[in-house]
Each structure stands twice: as structure tokens, then as C-alpha cells.
């Protein structure tokens, strides 16, 4: 009986020692923020130091890189922190766009090309643990068309030099037709994003009837025949008549001539006595020979400012045979004109 009592006391003492020891050990720490530990050990004795490191793709920035198990069974505090690694900012791609929110570890770039361009290479890239992008940027190459269709009796001129039998997206071709053919449809076409050309115009034969002559004028070609598209005929006027409008007319694609010019009549200065200002020269009307002012030319007559007792010149313009004399003009009497010309508005002090 004494032996059993002694054994019970010994076992109780051993159990108490084991439980006390377990309360002083540190459990494996639960670390946040991408901090990691090596090994799989679950319990640590006081005084044990654990080195800290960052998970792949993360970089340490502060704090001691270890923690210590204290006698109280708790780990020491640390300010150790891990931040994600950063990849370099991506360069823009020609004729395309890239979309991304950040450049840190595991960030993604998505690539797209502008309309009319095809993406060659990866559509996306991921920032890797080593701080580099997973793939180089792609290239956006233009969509290709064949050569532009050429209409019969026509020709095409590209906006820039073309080599080989392919053309790039956006290239413009300009069409012209060989006379006497005229262009019907849009004069230009483009290589589209679908790899085809926009609509090709047609070249149709066009002629115009003989042009009409103009009153008081003549033309350079009096042939009574049909004229080809883009053929031209010149006009001029007889005598002192002035041509108003284009000197030449052209046979248009609608089979009609462009607007004909007209011949405008000259004017005479309708005063009997007085002095005029013509082409910056003062001339007595009796010496104005011939009394002709051409269409759209100007002449000035002299009027009297009776309040200020001074003269002033007022201009008037010849319009197709009509030259209006300003109302302020008063024709002098024959006596004043012949005996007292120095008293006329043109000769006294000018206002």
C-alpha cells in the first residue's frame, strides 16, 4: 500500500512538470502579409529564433528579419513587411492600345490594335515574380489589300509609293479617266479594315454639242461638231466690250458646257460741261476723246459743298453700258464753264 501511494505522488509530479513545460513553448506563428517561414515544425522552445522571408514575388522593406520565442510562450514583435515587386512601366505600342491598372507582381496588361491593324504576338502579359513581364509587347501590323481595281479607260494614282502587289490599310487611290471618258462615282477609294477597296468608279464616254457663240463676242473654235469631255473653247469680245466670266469654257462630265461668259458694253460720260477724274488724271470733258469708259471702270465727277465752299470728287462705275451721274453734280452754265472755269468745284479748294 505504501508503494502504491509513492508511485501515485511520483506520477502526479511528472504530469505537472509536462503541463507546465507545454505552457512555455511557442506555437508555429501565423504570419500575414506574404511573410513565410521555412520548415514544418509546430512548437518552439523559449529563446528559439525564426528567420523571416518574403514569398516569391515580394520584397522586404523594413523591420528585423527574425522573431524570438519568449519565456512567456509568445513570439517577439516585428515590423517586418513584404511588398509586391514592380515591373517597369510598359512602353506604348504603335497603332494600338494597352490597358492595365498597375505594374506590381501578378498585374496584367491587355493589348489591342486600332481599327485596320492586326495584332501579332501575345494579347496580354503578366508581371512575374522576378519583376519582368512574361512576354514582350506585340506588334500591330496594318491590314493589307491588293492593288486597287482599275476601271476600263481609267488610271489610278496612289497617295504614296506602292511596292509589290499589296497595299496597306488607309491608303487612298485617286482615279482619273482618259479623254473623252469621264469619271462617274467617287473619285477616290480606300483600303478598308476588311482588306477590300471601297467602290470603284466608272469611266464613261462623254461629248458636248458645239458651244454657242456669245453676243458681241467670238470664240476660238467654230467647228460644228461634238466636243469630247474636257475639251475647251476660248471666248473674247469685240471692240470696247469687256468679257465677264471665264475666258474659256470646258465640256463637263454631264455633257454640258461650263457657264458661258458675256460681253459687257462700255459707257459714255453723260455731261456736257465740267471736269472729270479718270485713271488718276483730271480731264476737261471736252478733251475726253473718245468718250469711252469700259465696263467696271470708275470715273469721278466734282460736286460742290456749298456750306464749306469747297469741292470734292465722287466716283461712279460703268456697269454694262450704264454710268449714273451722282445727284450732287450740277452742270455749270456755259458762261461759268467758258469764262469762269476757276470757280468750278473741280478747280476750287478741295474739301
Explain how this protein is built:
- By secondary structure, this protein is mostly beta strands.
- It has 5 domains: 83 residues, Ribbon (Complement Module, domain 1); 47 residues, Complement Module, domain 1 (Ribbon), CATH 2.10.70.10; 55 residues, Complement Module, domain 1; 58 residues, Complement Module, domain 1; 69 residues, Complement Module, domain 1, CATH 2.10.70.10.
- Helices cover 8% and strands 34% of the residues.
- The strands form 13 sheets. A 4-stranded antiparallel β-sheet has the order 29-28-30-31, with no helix packed on it. A 3-stranded antiparallel β-sheet has the order 9-10-12, with no helix packed on it.
- A hairpin with an 8-residue loop joins strand 9 and strand 10.
- The chain starts with a helix and ends in a 12-residue tail after the last helix.
- The N terminus is likely disordered.
- It comes from Austrofundulus limnaeus.
- One of its GO terms (molecular function) is heparin binding.
Amino acid at each position: 500500500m505504501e508503494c502504491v501511494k509513492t508511485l501515485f505522488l511520483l506520477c502526479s509530479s511528472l504530469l505537472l512538470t509536462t503541463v507546465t513545460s507545454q505552457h512555455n513553448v511557442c506555437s508555429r506563428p501565423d504570419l500575414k502579409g506574404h511573410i513565410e517561414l521555412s520548415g514544418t515544425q509546430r512548437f518552439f522552445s523559449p529563446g528559439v529564433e525564426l528567420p523571416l522571408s518574403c514569398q516569391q514575388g515580394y520584397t522586404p522593406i523594413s523591420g528585423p528579419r527574425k522573431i524570438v520565442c519568449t519565456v512567456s510562450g509568445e513570439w517577439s514583435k516585428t515590423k517586418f513587411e513584404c511588398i509586391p515587386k514592380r515591373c517597369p512601366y510598359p512602353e506604348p505600342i504603335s497603332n494600338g492600345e494597352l490597358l492595365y491598372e498597375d505594374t506590381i507582381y501578378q498585374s496584367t496588361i491587355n493589348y489591342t490594335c486600332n481599327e485596320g491593324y492586326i495584332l501579332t504576338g501575345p494579347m496580354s502579359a503578366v508581371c512575374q515574380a522576378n519583376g519582368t513581364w512574361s512576354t514582350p509587347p506585340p506588334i500591330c501590323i496594318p491590314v493589307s489589300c491588293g492593288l486597287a481595281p482599275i476601271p476600263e479607260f481609267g488610271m489610278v494614282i496612289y497617295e504614296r509609293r506602292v511596292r509589290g502587289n499589296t497595299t496597306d490599310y488607309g491608303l487612298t487611290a485617286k482615279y482619273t479617266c482618259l479623254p473623252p471618258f469621264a469619271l462617274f462615282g467617287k473619285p477616290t477609294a480606300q483600303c478598308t479594315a476588311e482588306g477590300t477597296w471601297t467602290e470603284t468608279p466608272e469611266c464613261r464616254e462623254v461629248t458636248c454639242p458645239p458651244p454657242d457663240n456669245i453676243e458681241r463676242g467670238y470664240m476660238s473654235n467654230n467647228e460644228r461638231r461634238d466636243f469630247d469631255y474636257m475639251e475647251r473653247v476660248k471666248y473674247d469680245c469685240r471692240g470696247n466690250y469687256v468679257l465677264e466670266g471665264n475666258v474659256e469654257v470646258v465640256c463637263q462630265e454631264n455633257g454640258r458646257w461650263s457657264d458661258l461668259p458675256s460681253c459687257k458694253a462700255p459707257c459714255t460720260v453723260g455731261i456736257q460741261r465740267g471736269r472729270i477724274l479718270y485713271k488718276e488724271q483730271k480731264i476737261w470733258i471736252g478733251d475726253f476723246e473718245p468718250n469711252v469708259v469700259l465696263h467696271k471702270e470708275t470715273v469721278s465727277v466734282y460736286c460742290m459743298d456749298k456750306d464749306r465752299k469747297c469741292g470734292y470728287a465722287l466716283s461712279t462705275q460703268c456697269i454694262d453700258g450704264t454710268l449714273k451721274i451722282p445727284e450732287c453734280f450740277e452742270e455749270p452754265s456755259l458762261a461759268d464753264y467758258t469764262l469762269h472755269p476757276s470757280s468750278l468745284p473741280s478747280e476750287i479748294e478741295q474739301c
